[in-house]
Design goal:
Layout lengths: L2 H7 L5 E7 L4 H8 L8 E6 L8 H15 L6 E7 L5 H10 L6 E7 L2 H6 L10 H12 L16 H11 L12 E2 L2 H7 L16
Parallel strand pairs: 1-2, 1-3, 3-4
Antiparallel strand pairs: 4-5
Helix pairs in contact: 7-8
Length: about 210
Amino acid sequence: MNRFQRRHRFRDPKKFFIIATEGECTEDIYFTALKPPRDAAIQLKVLPTRKGRSHPRQVLERLKNYDRDAGSSAQDELWLVVDKDAWTEIDLDDVARALNGMPRYHLALSNPCFELWLVLHRRDSSGKSCAQLQAILEDELGAYRKNGYDAEKLKPGIEDAITRARRIDTPAQEPWPRADGTQVYRLVQKLAPHQPPADCTPPRARK
């Protein structure tokens, strides 16, 4: 019995978002910070790249293999989170076409890289290279490495990031952004309502 069958028996969440990423750490750190509470209506499963298998076709293969082996349900969503940075338009058009006729599969591409999505939590940004975006994050967060950063510091800016990313997603009908942009907001806006509320407990009055 696989985990998707077990979830019904043990009253697990009704819907899973399965996210296959191009990177080994950066995206995994971010989405791990977004994981809803265990009793939420949704749950996340992140499938990061291992052993350098980061080509968009390999990311899709990883996602399809998990879907086949784990037996996801008709209401689950499967997402590819990849970058434009290292790949040609042919590579990306190829994987976008491969998703045609697969309504549960979605592409969330960042151009030039996932760091643009992270920066948008703090400020507008355009025309920056990946190295420049990483430098902005280091300034904003106090420290930033692709394999280690404090994603909790970004969570208060999720709604701002969604608004900024949506604004530059033009035309939104494109399978992926040909210029600076990120469609990760399409995934995160489905997850944000399930984030635990901020701790608003008032401080104890002094005696």
